[in-house]
Amino acid sequence: MVVAYHPPPTMSASHTANGSGAPDQNPYHVALTQYDRAVRYLNLKDNTVEYMRYPHREFTVNFPVVRDNGKLEMFTGYRVHHSTVLGPSKGGIRYSTAVSLDEIRALAMWMTWKCALAGIPYGGAKGGVVVDPKTLSLRELEALTRRYAAELVPFIGPKSDIPAPDMGTNAQIMAWIMDTYSMTMGYSVPAVVTGKPLNIGGSLGRNEATGRGVIACMIEALKRHDMNDPEDVSLVIQGFGNVGSNAAAYAHSLGFKIVGVSDVYGGIHNPHGLDIPALRNYVAETGGVRGFGGADDISNDNLLTLSCDVLIPAAMEGQISEENAPYIRAEIIVEGANGPTTPEADDILNDRGVHIVPDILANAGGVIVSYFEWVQDLQAFFWDVGDIYTRLEKQMQHAYRSTEATAEEYNVDMRTAAQMLGIRRVAEAFETRGVYP
Ligand code: NAD
Fold it and tell me: Cα dihedral sign for 364, 168, 283, 308?
């Protein structure tokens, strides 16, 4: 069954993550297009299909922050709960000037399918503030975070909606959200956020989890291509933040050769492989990868089309489009970022036989260990890192293999298969619960 394209009335075609007004680059349009592709293969009731394509709740807030110079500035923040069918909603908070309501809606919808695919009892959510955090002092960043968190208090909670870090946010920002929420409640509530510092109830392994899960998926995909010797496998990684740098570090420790990486300022390339621990120190000192010794500086556009076996986009949406898809030379793409490939690029790459491990599968390691963190907080009983990595790897492998089996059974690409598995689980739970009232 094909459902007509039917976005909520405010869907914007002009405010997109990459500043382009083209509808194929609006992340929410991308998310809905992927949804429509996946439900075609599922024998679901029309009512269920219609229900799941809408975000459940959307919250927009305009709030003040007094800058260090004494001037009041207004900021806009969002939180979208796409689904609470399988449990409390879960999803990161993003600080970026590219944040828009449509971007947050898309990311919330992807969280719903990702949690369901990973088999964890959560729905999907996402939040964001339109701000470049690098332009704020530490005091301003704390003030912005605490005010946004205070505005979110009615919508978040350990039983209702649990934020986590995403682009532009980190463990310290989660600590300020946790503290603001706890001060309002009158007691400490560590389980209200995940990705917190260890000393206030964070989990070992959470910081590394997404990057590690990306590499676990890559290893599964490489088996399919009989590429089993890490030394013979070259990787290019776009984005060197939490996901990209941890994926690089783990892959490097396993013996894989990382030949190119980039961040928002540009990229570097060395066909013989980069010394990732030294690069991480360099980035900690200088704030970027460019200028790293023993590598050539290149542009982000050139990075994506470098010769390599595996390309890992780990920055943001819409990076692989119909413009650059024909020139991508990797055999395998493992999506560390959410929504890095447009549906048009998907078609081009699938036709060319490029094996794409989709975002909701490849980057699920973050939410899986976030789930472990939440369970540990609720039980006030903490696990060692070995237990966490073993369980993470098992859950990632299970999700990967179920997706591959679905792709083979229905003769569809891995993205459609992953979405089908996630969507089907939510649909079944929705039908079991029924429509209230
Ligand atoms: P981050 O802020 O830690 O890092 C983002 C990196 O991307 C930085 O190096 C930044 O310089 C770079 N970047 C930004 N725009 C770029 C551009 N146009 N070109 C090249 N590089 C660019 O963010 P993160 O947490 O690593 O998240 C990256 C992606 O992974 C996002 O799509 C996020 O939604 C997704 N993700 C993150 C997690 C997590 O646990 N952090 C989990 C799942 C998915």
Answer: positive
Please state, in angstroms and as integers, the Cα–Cα distance from residue 194 to each residue in 206, 305, 356, following that order.
Answer: 8, 35, 28
CB 121 within 8 A of CB 374: no
Distance (Å, rounded) from C-alpha 387 to C-alpha 205?
A: 10
Per-residue pLDDT tens for 318-368?
999 999 999 999 999 999 999 999 999 999 999 999 999 999 999 999 999
Determine the distance separating the centroid of ligand 1 and the alpha carbon of 411, expressed in angstroms: 31
Helix and strand numbers, DSSP H then E, in the chain = 14, 12
Tokens of 418: 């992953």
Q: How far is the CA of 138 from the centre of ligand 1 (A)?
A: 21
Is 126 one of the catalytic residues? yes
Query: Is the C-beta atom of 239 inside 6 A of ligand 1?
Result: yes
Nearest CA to 24 out of 238, 315, 323, 354 is that of 323
* Ligand 1 and 263: CB distance under 6 A: yes
Nearest-angstrom CA–CA distance, 360 and 110? 7
Biggest alpha carbon distance in the chain?
65
Residue 36 has what pLDDT? 96
State the distance from the centre of ligand 1 to the C-alpha of 371, rounded, in angstroms: 20
pLDDT, one tens digit per residue, over 399-420 is: 999 999 999 999 999 999 999 9
Does any ligand 1 atom lie closer than 6 A to the CB of residue 315? yes
DSSP secondary structure string for all residues of 141-206: HHHHHHHHHHHHTTT-BTTTEEEEE-TT--HHHHHHHHHHHHHHHTS--GGG-SS--GGGT--TTH
Q: Whose CA is nearest to atom 42 of ligand 1?
A: 366
